[in-house]
């Protein structure tokens, strides 16, 4: 149990997807302009990443490894993730339209979120078992969501500040992210 | 005396400056010409019913209310209509005025008033219907500043059960002493007015809220009310903006008017003392709203005082009367320094809502160099409405109002407390007003 | 197509990183040194170029509805090829770039160019587009890598610039420094782009 | 050979399962949507990078179709793509003559003096909270530049107390119109040269007192116009752009110079 | 999507592409498998050459052997000279409880049990502090030390080792790691004698 | 224009309470004097040198920016001075001049001016600089001169000792020494008492409120107490945690920075709790001995969220 808790803490704070692993930065900067959007995106990522982590684990353990074709990992994973995302989108649209309106619109964006593929590959590399993989994927997504939501609120606040013209837009966002990364450095070494 | 009541959240203690508090109400003369503003109230503009060269009598209707939320305007003196045109009013607005050439310029207004017969009023014979109708016809509006037609306030829809009446004698703004003097000099008449209002809401207790910085007014009102049943004088701890309707209700009854709501939503009707006096005069003198008491004060006024004047009297008349040097005046305020409005013409006339005229020179004006917001939170802590002023203002400045701010910014009562305490010297109220304006424009 | 203009465009105005803000993950993660930046950039360029060519070749064969999955498969194939060949020949570099080689698959530039350009243009034009976009990407990675290496390690392309005993600003080789440097480089590149635009 | 074919079959299997799964799912869970969304999405790059601020290409397509606007360009696509989309949706289809914003006031500091020393927030809307007008004329341009701030094309500037519009830069987007608290801005076709540069509806004497170049409602222009294109209403001359031929008769007739001819005079023979 | 393509065509194109992609990859894999495997070993072997570089000519096996002691396990390479005599060992141990957790350390030991050199294989110590253990200034003090001639602790704890400035924990871990390697050497040496 | 005769028009109100940015800033400077005094006494001229240099650097940098980029900046409004002094209080007294210069550049430029200057920054400038330096120059930032000894002897802070040596090593430290500042550390870390005296003045002037310091310090106390109670052999006592490190400096001066803390009372309580929680977390489990600066910087990022979701209680929103 303590093991699993450590995996979560590590994934959320210590090895935060954004600030430590540098994964999923495109949506991080793209979707963090508005708080509402950021919250929706975070939810969608948590859902999809947990699911994707689980399924890629199964693909790796029961197909790729027994057949000794580990080099197909990238292509197999991305194929699985892309279809999975699209499947979820199609099904959600029909079965739960309300949920689709809230989360579904973020789904296409997730296919090319490198956090999904990256975390799936990392989970395999870390030699986690199924439960650990699920927890790890979930925790990583949670870390992504946390970073995204804070950052979106910071960017919304920046909109009301007197940012010099030169720094407006992405440059100031980068600098704010840099300072946030400084703060995240404080968590280093918490999980060994 | 009981423990002093006040509203709990926010508020400030600006320097009182009630230098005219002991000056009895004086009376002016009829000026050479009067400019009667057609629109002296909140609501639809009245329709002018006189033409150039018409001869009008004192009390004659000049403009007819154009709907329920509107108000009549009457001629305060006998005279001739010269013309109807657009002119600068007190407070920066430009609006239609009716220019009247009085028949007897220079005649003491006191004499005019003394010609009005004192009628005896049998309260038992008055019906609620009749009272409302006569108040409406007399063009009575809230004389505290806003100018909301009084008959509308007194006609709550039947589903709103009124269980308390509050008479607003707080007068929390610095300098202004008009209501104070009325309470000192005419307490019995105010009580007569209250008793007329009580006919509309029988059995409902009446509270007269007066701040403790006016002990003589408290004393006089206390004595006058002592003989009456169901009328209570409530002494209040002096704090600005206690005279705000919502703050007064909170202070007196500890009830909170909901956001975007009206006092009647918590079963209360608030009337200003001057308004009550005007109502009284409708019944005891058969006189519509023709005049009001104006405090004349400020650093350039040698002998500050309170003067009763017919509505439409130009500021220049008052300046002559009080010996105010035109060359030195740089700042003319209609109302108090916290919520009053600056004016730009000495020819503008006083209206039903002009409670004070303050004259200052350049020194009184604070050079506002707006500095960046420090987010110190002073504005938030003094805001009697609990608004996050600093945050909203930043949004207004960048035109990035979010839904949350839009929902609350309209609750601002523009009392000015935030601007008063801002260390960065920011024009917070002005920005808030601008924010309101932007929201209205969007809708 | 004017090649020179196209080159300037993809290096400055439409630079994938500083102009379009695409492919940020490898940009920030792998630029601890100028050399790593170039390595990552060239790997991406190869994939971009090859997939652009193949997608352009297949543009009339692939049905519209599965074009995205099909492109992804094509891209993933080249990525894996790069991955394996780098591991075989440039082992040390591959080790530092690590996870980010397979992640080239999800670099938006590649899919974006495949979709926006290669699927609608001839093979030769797609080749040029892939080449210049890739080099533009490499260029910004090189710049970022140089800044971070010089400030953070006191060296450039592995050559020590200041005495061993001097302190370097370590933060620049770490995550916060990556964001901060990119923030300032964005401003510099914007200025440069404007210069070029005015020069036209 | 097996070691090459086997992986091929396995991956083909993956592809088969996912493709047919998706195909079946899209049939079974079909939901109707505006088909144009698909068409627009097909034109967009499909990189789903989120660079436009929307959550992916489909979200942008939905925005374009549902809100019927191409205000948010895709940062990845060539500009031609957005033009194609606009064509597809019939946006900007009708070719109109270029319109420009025009200020209906000539109340410079010389013509209509300041009536007060306004010290509040330097913004027209903030000023009208304090006073209806800061100049002698109640209808004058305040010259505090709310429209200048609103203009996205740098086409406006304040000069001598009133706003001056650069007709070259003006795109006729009309955003400034709603930002004028005095409602002094209108759009006019560039070929319309004759304008009444006044909005004062007061009677002649008062209008003249307020501004040297005010329209005093004298009706001379109405009388002189041969095309019934100019008429006086509320003591203010107004021009019907449909009928006006820019002949310039009214300009000459106006005693207060309240009617102006912009640029070169163009005669239109009826 | 203006035209509706048939489901069969859609699926089959995708399947075909996937098939060719995987086949291509399998082919590339076939070519690169060998060099990759070689590269992976090469790194460790490089380290062995560094830590044992003072031994002159020697041979050692391609893959390390495992050695389990009660508290920990280690891997080692045995270096032999041309005549088949053991001239030294390169022992890989986990240095315990560093700042960023355990890290892998390779220690070269000559046949007399003296430390030749050290090499840090991978670590998560703080840049600028702990990772100074890779620097010559710190490493050189270990050369020539053996289990017997040294108190294996940092000076602060009453030993002989100078700790890195402001990185006591890393220094402790490093010291403990070297000590472990020497312990392994003793065991191996005993076994070799038998 | 003959504006002379025209009447002034402006929006009400026309009075002012007489507060100003400068007054606030210089009051903060004043309140820092006791703590500065203690560190001057402890570390001698070295400490004076650090404070003077950082203050000069910070003001000079703002003056340069004011000259070349944004003439609206008032570099003498005291805010740059406060940043300079606070930065100095986060540094060791033997810090080399280039460290002070880099710190000042980071604080004023990256921490403040890129966001638009006074009042616009999201993160506390002095802390941005401190964390930046801590990560970049760990060697210089973790060896501290020993107070009272002017011979350049360096040692670790009590928290540093705790992290490397364990609980046993700090047993000999007396609480009174910790509270009075007779231990190693940065300029402002050393005397909790002097800091409290200064802060009392700010409380009196109402420039800071009780919420953040109380919930910050309280949370650290509670969390460290819980772990101390679980295992006193492994974790230090809460009293030790209270008086060691920069907790008081952080809780009284850095977290309460008006610009980077939330506005409403409720939000301040949560903000303080967050600071305390992450401080305790980093101190107990992280690899850095001190977590105050990281925790505050981290919570700074939450301020917009807190402002939005825990605003002031609105009038008329009862029921």
TrEMBL record, chain D:
[4Fe-4S] cluster 1 binds at residues 49, 52, 57, 74. Its EC number is 7.-.-.-. It comes from the Bacteria. [4Fe-4S] cluster 2 binds at residues 137, 141, 147, 180. One of its GO terms (molecular function) is metal ion binding. Residues 32-91 form the 4Fe-4S domain. The chain crosses the membrane at residues 6-26. Binds 3 [4Fe-4S] clusters. Keywords: 4Fe-4S, Cell membrane, Electron transport, Iron, Iron-sulfur, Membrane, Metal-binding, Repeat, Translocase, Transmembrane, Transmembrane helix, Transport. Belongs to the 4Fe4S bacterial-type ferredoxin family. RnfB subfamily. The complex is composed of six subunits: RnfA, RnfB, RnfC, RnfD, RnfE and RnfG. This is Ion-translocating oxidoreductase complex subunit B. The gene is rnfB.
């Amino acid at each position: 149990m303590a093991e699993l808790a450590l995996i979560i803490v590590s994934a959320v704070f210590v090895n935060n997807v954004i600030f430590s692993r540098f994964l999923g930065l495109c949506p991080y900067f793209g979707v963090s302009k508005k708080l509402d959007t950021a919250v929706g995106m975070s939810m969608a990522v948590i859902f999809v990443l947990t699911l994707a982590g689980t399924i890629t684990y199964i693909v790796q353990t029961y197909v790729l490894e027994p057949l000794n074709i580990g080099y197909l990992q990238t292509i197999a994973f991305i194929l699985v993730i892309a279809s999975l995302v699209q499947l979820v989108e199609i099904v959600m649209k029909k079965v739960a339209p309300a949920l689709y309106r809230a989360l579904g619109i973020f789904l296409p964006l997730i296919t090319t979120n490198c956090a999904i593929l990256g975390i799936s590959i990392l989970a395999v590399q870390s030699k986690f078992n199924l439960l650990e993989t699920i927890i790890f994927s979930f925790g990583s997504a949670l870390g992504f969501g946390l970073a995204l939501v804070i950052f979106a609120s910071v960017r919304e606040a920046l909109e009301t500040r007197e940012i010099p013209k030169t720094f407006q837009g992405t440059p100031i966002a980068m600098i704010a992210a840099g300072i946030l990364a400084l703060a995240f450095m404080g968590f280093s070494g918490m999980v060994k | 005396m009981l423990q002093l009541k006040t509203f709990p959240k926010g508020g400030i203690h600006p320097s009182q400056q009630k230098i005219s508090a002991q000056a009895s109400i004086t009376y002016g003369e009829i000026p050479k010409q009067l400019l009667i503003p057609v629109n002296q109230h909140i609501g639809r503009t009245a329709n002018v019913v006189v033409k150039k060269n018409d001869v009008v009598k004192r009390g004659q209707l000049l403009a007819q209310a154009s709907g329920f939320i509107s108000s009549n305007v009457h001629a305060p003196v006998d005279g001739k209509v010269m013309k109807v045109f657009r002119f600068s009013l007190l407070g920066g607005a430009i609006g239609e005025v009716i220019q009247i050439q009085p028949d007897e310029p220079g005649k003491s207004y006191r004499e005019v008033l003394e010609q009005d017969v004192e009628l005896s009023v049998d309260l038992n014979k008055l019906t609620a219907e009749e009272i409302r109708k006569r108040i409406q016809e007399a063009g009575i509006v809230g004389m505290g500043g806003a100018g909301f037609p009084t008959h509308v306030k007194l006609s709550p829809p039947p589903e709103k059960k009124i269980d308390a009446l509050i008479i607003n004698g707080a007068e929390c703004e610095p300098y202004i002493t008009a209501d104070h003097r009325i309470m000192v000099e005419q307490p019995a008449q105010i009580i007569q007015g209250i008793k007329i209002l009580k006919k509309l809401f029988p059995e409902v207790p009446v509270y007269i809220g007066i701040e403790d910085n006016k002990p003589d007014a408290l004393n006089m009102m206390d004595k006058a009310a002592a003989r009456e049943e169901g009328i209570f004088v409530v002494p209040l701890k002096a704090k600005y903006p206690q005279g705000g309707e919502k703050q007064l209700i909170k202070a007196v009854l500890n009830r909170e008017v909901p956001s975007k709501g009206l006092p009647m939503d918590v079963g209360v009707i608030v009337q200003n003392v001057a308004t009550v006096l005007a109502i009284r005069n409708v019944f005891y003198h058969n006189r519509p709203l023709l005049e009001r008491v104006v405090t004349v004060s400020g650093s350039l006024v040698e002998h500050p005082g309170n003067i009763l004047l017919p509505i439409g009297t130009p500021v220049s008349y008052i300046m002559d009367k009080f010996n105010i040097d035109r060359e030195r005046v740089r700042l003319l305020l209609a109302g108090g320094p916290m919520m009053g409005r600056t004016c730009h013409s000495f020819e503008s006339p006083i209206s039903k809502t002009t409670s004070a005229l303050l004259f200052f020179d350049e020194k009184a004006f604070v050079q506002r160099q707006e500095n960046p917001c420090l987010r110190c939170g002073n504005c938030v802590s003094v805001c009697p409405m609990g608004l996050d002023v600093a945050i909203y203002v930043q949004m207004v400045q960048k035109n990035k109002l979010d839904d949350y701010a839009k929902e609350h910014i309209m609750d601002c009562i523009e009392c000015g407390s935030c601007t008063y305490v801002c260390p960065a010297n920011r024009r917070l109220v002005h920005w808030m007003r601008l924010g309101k304006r932007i929201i209205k424009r969007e809708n | 197509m004017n090649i020179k203009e196209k080159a300037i465009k993809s290096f400055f105005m439409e630079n994938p990183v500083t102009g379009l803000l695409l492919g940020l993950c490898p940009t920030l993660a792998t630029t601890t040194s100028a050399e790593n930046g170039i390595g990552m950039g060239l790997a991406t360029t190869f994939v971009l170029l090859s997939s652009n060519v193949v997608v352009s070749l297949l543009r009339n064969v692939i049905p519209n509805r599965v074009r995205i999955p099909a492109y992804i498969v094509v891209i993933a194939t080249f990525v894996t090829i790069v991955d394996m060949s780098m591991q075989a020949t440039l082992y040390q570099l591959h080790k530092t770039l690590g996870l980010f080689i397979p992640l080239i698959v999800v670099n938006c530039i590649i899919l974006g160019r495949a979709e926006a350009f290669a699927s609608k243009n001839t093979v030769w034009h797609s080749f040029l587009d892939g080449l210049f976009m890739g080099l533009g990407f490499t260029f910004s990675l090189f710049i970022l890598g140089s800044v971070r290496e010089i400030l953070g390690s006191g060296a450039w392309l592995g050559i020590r610039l200041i005495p061993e005993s001097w302190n370097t600003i370590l933060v620049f080789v770490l995550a916060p420094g990556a964001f901060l440097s990119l923030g300032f480089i964005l401003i510099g590149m914007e200025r440069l782009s404007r210069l070029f635009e005015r020069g036209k | 050979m097996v070691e090459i074919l086997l992986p091929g079959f396995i991956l083909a299997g993956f592809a088969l399962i996912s493709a047919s799964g998706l195909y079946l799912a899209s049939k079974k869970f079909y939901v109707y949507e505006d088909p144009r969304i698909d068409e627009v999405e097909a034109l967009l790059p499909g990189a789903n990078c989120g660079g436009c601020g929307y959550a992916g290409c489909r979200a942008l397509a939905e925005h374009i179709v549902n809100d019927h606007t191409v205000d948010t360009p895709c940062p990845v696509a060539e500009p031609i793509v957005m033009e194609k989309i606009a064509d597809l949706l019939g946006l900007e289809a009708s070719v109109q003559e270029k319109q420009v914003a025009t200020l209906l006031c000539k109340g410079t500091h010389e013509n209509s003096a300041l009536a007060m020393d306004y010290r509040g927030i330097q913004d027209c809307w903030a000023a009208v909270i304090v006073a209806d007008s800061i100049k002698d004329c109640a209808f004058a341009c305040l010259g505090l530049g709310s429209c200048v701030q609103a203009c996205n094309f740098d086409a406006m500037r304040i000069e001598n107390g009133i706003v001056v519009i650069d007709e070259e830069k003006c795109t006729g987007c009309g955003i400034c119109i709603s930002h004028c608290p005095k409602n002094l801005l209108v759009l006019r076709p560039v070929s319309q040269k004759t304008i009444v540069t006044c909005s004062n509806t007061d009677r002649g004497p008062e209008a003249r007192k307020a501004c040297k170049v005010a329209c005093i409602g004298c009706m001379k222009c109405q009388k002189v116009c041969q095309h019934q294109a100019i008429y006086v209403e509320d003591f203010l001359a107004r021009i019907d752009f449909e009928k006006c031929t820019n002949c310039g008769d009214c300009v000459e007739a106006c005693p207060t110079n309240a009617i102006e001819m912009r640029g070169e005079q163009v005669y239109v023979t009826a | 999507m203006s035209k509706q393509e048939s489901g069969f065509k859609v699926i089959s194109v995708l399947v075909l592409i996937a098939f060719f992609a995987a086949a291509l990859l399998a082919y590339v894999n076939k070519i690169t498998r060998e060099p990759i495997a070689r590269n992976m070993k090469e790194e460790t072997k490089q380290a062995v050459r560094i830590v044992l570089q003072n031994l002159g000519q020697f041979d050692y096996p391609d893959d390390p052997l495992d050695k389990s002691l009660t508290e920990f396990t280690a891997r080692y390479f045995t270096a032999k000279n041309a005549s088949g005599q053991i001239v030294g060992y390169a022992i890989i141990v986990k240095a315990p409880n560093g700042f960023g957790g355990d890290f892998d350390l390779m220690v070269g030991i000559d046949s007399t049990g003296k430390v030749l050199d050290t090499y840090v294989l991978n670590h998560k110590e703080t840049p600028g502090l702990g990772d100074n253990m890779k620097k010559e200034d710190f490493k050189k003090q270990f050369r020539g030390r053996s289990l017997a001639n040294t108190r294996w602790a940092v000076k602060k704890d009453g030993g002989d080792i100078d700790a890195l400035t402001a990185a006591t924990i890393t220094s402790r871990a490093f010291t403990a790691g070297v000590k472990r390697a020497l312990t392994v050497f003793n065991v191996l040496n005993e076994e070799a004698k038998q | 224009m003959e504006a002379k005769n025209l009447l002034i028009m402006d929006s009400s109100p026309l009075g002012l309470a007489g507060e100003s940015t400068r007054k606030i800033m210089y009051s903060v400077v004043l309140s820092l004097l006791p703590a500065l005094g203690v560190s001057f006494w402890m570390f001698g001229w070295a400490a004076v040198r650090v404070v003077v240099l950082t203050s000069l650097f910070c003001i000079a940098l703002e003056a340069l920016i004011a000259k070349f980029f944004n003439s609206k900046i008032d570099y003498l409004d005291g805010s740059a001075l406060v940043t300079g002094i606070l930065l100095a209080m986060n540094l060791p007294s033997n810090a080399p001049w280039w460290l002070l210069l880099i710190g000042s550049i980071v604080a004023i430029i990256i921490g403040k001016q890129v966001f638009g200057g006074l009042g616009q920054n999201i993160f506390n400038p002095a802390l941005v600089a401190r964390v930046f330096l801590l990560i970049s120059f760990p060697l210089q930032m973790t060896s501290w001169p020993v107070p009272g000894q002017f011979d350049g002897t360096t040692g670790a802070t009590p928290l540093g000792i705790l992290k490397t040596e364990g609980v046993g090593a700090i047993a000999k430290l007396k609480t009174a020494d910790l509270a009075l500042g007779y231990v190693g550390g940065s300029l402002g870390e050393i005397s909790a008492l002097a800091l409290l005296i200064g802060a009392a003045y700010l409380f009196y002037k109402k420039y800071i409120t009780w919420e953040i310091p109380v919930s910050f310090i309280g949370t650290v106390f509670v969390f460290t107490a819980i772990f101390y109670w679980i295992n006193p052999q492994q974790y230090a006592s809460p009293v030790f945690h209270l008086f060691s490190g920069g907790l008081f400096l952080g809780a009284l001066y850095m977290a309460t920075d008006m610009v980077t803390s939330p506005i409403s009372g409720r939000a301040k309580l949560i903000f303080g709790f967050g600071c305390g929680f992450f401080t305790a977390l980093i101190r107990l489990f992280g690899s850095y001995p001190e977590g105050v600066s990281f925790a505050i910087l981290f919570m700074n990022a939450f301020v917009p969220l807190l402002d939005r979701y825990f605003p002031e209680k609105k009038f008329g929103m009862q029921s």
